[in-house]
Amino acid sequence: MNNNYTFLGSIAKRNKHLALSLTLAAALASCSGDQQDEGEEVESAFNTSLSMADVMALVLEPASDVLWDSGGWVLDSAGYEELYPTTDDGWAYVRAQAAIIVETGNILALPERREDNDAWVIYSQGLSEAGLRAMNAAATQDKDEFFQAGAQLYSVCTACHQAYNPDIVNRFDDNAD
Ligand code: HEC
After folding, report:
1. Which residue in 100, 97, 35, 40 sits closest to 70, CA to CA?
2. End-to-end distance of the chain based on CA atoms, in angstroms?
3. Are residues 35 and 65 in the same domain?
4. 49 CA from centroid of ligand 1 (Å)
5. Atom of ligand 1 nearest to the CA of 64
6. What is the CATH number of the domain that holds 96?
7. What residue ranges line ligand 1, CB within 6 angstroms?
8. Could you tell me if 142 and 91 lie in one domain?
9. Residue 10's domain spans which residues?
10. How far apart are alpha carbons 91 and 95 in whole angstroms?
11. 134 with 168, same domain?
12. What is the secondary structure of 22-46 as a DSSP string?
């Protein structure tokens, strides 16, 4: 350490201009080097081998289906049947599914997955927000709020599909029928 300072100091004395240039060059090199390293690390830190279709069909849709199947009522031969969870464990389970949705918002917003830095990111964040709302509603076992969170979630799915993959919207509606 001390030796280095002495060495630099002696260069500076002999040639201030040279020392300054060297220092600047070193600073710039380390600066841009750091940025490159960080960029590479961030990119290689994520495993994005799942296709968008797989993320949708295997991660996001199953969790969302649990939420939609756990809110509201259905009319069957016996009359209206409430779909909401009836036990603490049941609410804990739907809350965990909602957590998957919160994190899927992040998964979609990854640099390698996002299709732009604009609407795509807003929809991804909207997914996380709807998921958080459902998590909170499940934690307080608030049925109305849970139902609203499910509706908000559905509108985010539809909005993003409309913007980025209109074919999916049609398939979605077919499925719902
Ligand atoms: C940020 C945008 C975005 C959001 C939000 C989004 N999707 Fe998607 N989704 C897509 C895109 C893009 C595709 C087309 C993927 C492909 O086939 O390459 C897709 C495709 C799908 C598919 C078809 C997958 C397949 O097997 O071909 C399903 C099912 C799906 N989404 C469900 C959902 C559900 C449920 C939600 C909401 C809970 C949702 N998506 C929210 C962008 C989004």
Report:
1. 97
2. 74
3. no
4. 16
5. 38
6. 1.20.120
7. 52-53, 56-57, 60-61, 64, 108, 120, 123-124, 127, 153, 156-157, 160-161, 164-165, 168
8. yes
9. 2-44
10. 6
11. yes
12. HHHHHHHHHHHHHHHHHHHHHHHT-
- Scan for tokens 């600073």, then name that residue: 27
Residues 27 and 66 reside in one and the same domain: no
Examine the domain organization and report whether 80 and 144 are in the same domain. yes
The model carries a pTM of: 0.77
Give per-residue pLDDT as tens, 69-79: 999 888 888 88
Q: Which H/E stretch holds residue 79?
A: strand 79-82
50 phi/psi in degrees, rounded to 5: -70, 135
Euclidean distance between CA atoms 32 and 26, whole angstroms: 10
**pLDDT, tens digit, 9 for 90 and up, residues 158-173:** 999 999 987 877 666 6
Q: From ligand 1's centre to the CA of 110, what distance in Å?
A: 15
Instruction: Give distance in angstroms: CA of 53 to centre of ligand 1.
Output: 6
Shortest-distance Cα residue to atom 25 of ligand 1: 53
What is the DSSP track for 6-24?
A: HHHHHHHHH-HHHHHHHHH
